[in-house]
Amino acid sequence: MAPIKEIELKFKLTEEDKAALLSRLNELSAKHEGHKKEIDYYYARQGRDFMQTKECLRIRYTPDYTEITYKPATTEEMKEAQSFWKKEINLRIDGQLEQAREFLQGLGCIEFVKVAKERDTYKLNEVIIALDYIEGVRWFAELEIQDENEMNALAALKKCAQELNIKSESIVTEPYRDLCMKKDIVDTSSPAPRGEA
User: Fold this and answer.
1) Domain ranges of the chain
2) What residues form DSSP beta bridges with 69?
3) Shortest CA distance to 171 belongs to which of 81, 101, 55?
4) Distance in angstroms (rounded) separating the CA atoms of residues 31 and 107
């Protein structure tokens, strides 16, 4: 039996898109599963360009937990599908954020970007929909499903995106880390959530 994988699609949203998505989620009775804040610190190894390989080495801090995550490089198949199904390796390090940062830096890893995110999560059938506000690059919707078959999962995600009236041309293939590094799709007309600047 093939292993279960997490497959995801991500879309850039304008303020109008975000409002329409929230309305549509309400119409479809999607279940709101919570709101959370996360801060991610991204690292690279000396002599290896993680921006090029699309590998991920990060420390994630939330009010509830802290963890180190590694994701392997993006494959050509993923690039062609404009979707991702990477195996994550996660290590919980609750209460040890600064020690973890010092540890990675001591190994010669370089901390090169911080990503601050607010996320509201919804569930519609088998699909998890995350409405994300990324500081500096604004709004996104991330659709995720678990399946052992990548192509079946991708078809289900695209069907869900259509049902939610998310524009297919707004798909984003770069991780938040890269978008924060580039900051080339900032929509300054969109206000920050919950009254933030």
Assistant:
1) 5-187
2) 58, 90
3) 81
4) 43
Q: How far is residue 150's CA from residue 5's CA, in Å, rounded to a whole number?
A: 8
Contacts of 119 (CB under 8 A, 6+ apart): 35, 36, 37, 38, 130, 131, 132, 133
pLDDT at 192 over 60: no
Task: To the nearest 10°, report the CA torsion of 164, 166, 172, 173.
Answer: 50
Q: Count of CB atoms within 10 A of residue 113's CB?
A: 17
Residue that has been written with the tokens 């801060």 in this structure: 39
Is the model's pLDDT at 197 over the cut of 70?
no
**Percent above pLDDT 70 for the chain:** 87
Check pLDDT > 90 for residue 49.
Answer: no
Nearest Cα to Cα of residue 135 among 20, 39, 68: 39
Q: What integer best gives the mean pLDDT of the chain?
A: 86
Classify domain 5-187 at the CATH class level.
Answer: mainly beta
pTM, 2 dp: 0.77
For residue 10, CA distances in Å to 92, 96, 102 come to 26, 30, 32
